[in-house]
Structure prediction request, 521 residues.
Amino acid sequence: MGAINTVGVVGLGTMGAGIVEVFAKQGLATIAVEIDQSALDRGRAIVTSSTQRAVDRGRMSEQDAKDLVDSISFTLEFSDLAAADLVIEAVPERMSIKKDLFSRLDAVCPPETIFATNTSSLSVTDIAATTSRPDRLIGMHFFNPAPVMKLVEVVRTVLTAQEVVSRISELARACGKSPVVVGDRAGFVVNTLLVSYLNDAVNVFDQSRVSREGIDTAMTVGALLPMGPLALCDLIGLDVCLEIMDVLFAQSRDQVHAPAPLMREMVSAGLLGRKSGRGFFTYEKPGSGRVIPDELTPADFEPVTLPRQVYLVGDGMQCEELVKLCAQAGVSSHVVSYDQFDPGQVPEGVPVLVSVKPVQRAIDIATQMGPRIDEVIGLHVLFPNQKGQLVEIAATPFSSDRLVRISQSIALGASASPVICDDDSGQVVGRLLSPYLNDAVRMVASGYVSADDVDTAMMLGCGYPRGPIAFLANFSTPDTICDVLEQISRKTQLSRHLPVSALTDAAIYGVGIDQLLTESS
Ligand code: CAA
Prediction:
């Protein structure tokens, strides 16, 4: 087989147009095909505005941007694809459309042409089986935005020739991407972990008091993720997320993968995210990433007069962080440990702030307060990082509105980001991270992917600052995660939220999870 010099891309939606840009930037002859003139024009406009963005940022000259767009052969002529060494499709995610496309490609392209699919939810094996060249059909799964995200999941089926796997991996590398070769399981590596987490976030948003802004702030400031889960749903498209959850659910038949009812409702209503102009957030116009205010946008916060002193229950480093936070806001704190808390000692009118740990709940203290049950609230203060400092305000069902506002004012007074949530185990960050970490460990322990590859995939596919296994090894103790998972499972009634055995082993034997997974693989 010769080198890949000419590439055809069929379907110029967000992903297809991004893929065209990747290949054209690499200097490959790129043939971009759509079914009608308006779709072709839309595809060209996506590539043009993406390269214009590079010009605006001084990363590319006007001339180079123009040359790049001009170098692409935008065409409605399907038969032009006969010249391609590789044809990749990014058409809508329906098997009938893909089957029809590949049978037409089979008729047009010589037998040596490699076919690739950018599918994120269909079985690559099923697609391969419909072609006359199943050994030369492969998954080449890019991530949105394709010109930026460095990962390509190279999906091999049981029929794919090794040589094709090598050449596609090489091509991805030549385009500045990092390929990770994976088997053909629903969701592959990244979407299984990412979209399950997004689905979970939608359920938490739907079923608790945390706002959409709160969820996204918690995960960006508290977990250093590049985007919040709800903004990311909007970027990917809620219809795409729903399709992925549907296939994950069909494969696992586990309730944990059941698509969030709210997600399905929004897709039925046409609220697909950025592409339709409205999803969890509202955008300036369809296709834009600029969020504009809507009826859910919170009103400007009016700070309340802060008390001079608070009664602070807790111990350990997180409690010290809370003391610091109060001091920065000009509030002094009287600290007692959980064990020594005596409700009779709390002076009249002094609010009680409980320094909640991931598995600690403020309600345990509140219920000791008798008629003053509404004067207790939980605060979980994370350590400051480069994005600031997150304060999760864990309101019990009894916490007064005034106390919620006092807590917000303290956080804002200390220049931290407050997020109001329910008084549940893990608050927001721990609640959403723990099942994701558990899933990653399950995936590595099953032998589907190595610890290194899962870490690389999540960092390069989603822009995470570190992969799940490295996170567990360096930033978390397995026993805390296990405790949080057990409590989450108690609440959700989902057995898949229970810690996997590798995590409980790590907790019991005090062995690093990375070590345990390396030993077992
Ligand atoms: N097209 C081209 N370039 C883009 C772009 C786009 N749509 N969006 C951003 N960029 C470029 C910018 O030009 C900028 O480049 P420079 O730094 O060289 O100037 C760079 O990306 C960073 O952009 P911004 O400064 O505007 O914004 P940011 O720092 O917030 O980054 C982001 C934006 C790259 C999207 C970042 O938020 C991120 O990594 N988010 C996570 C995205 C993610 O998880 N993607 C995977 C989704 S799952 C998937 O796609 C698979 C599937 O099957 C569903």
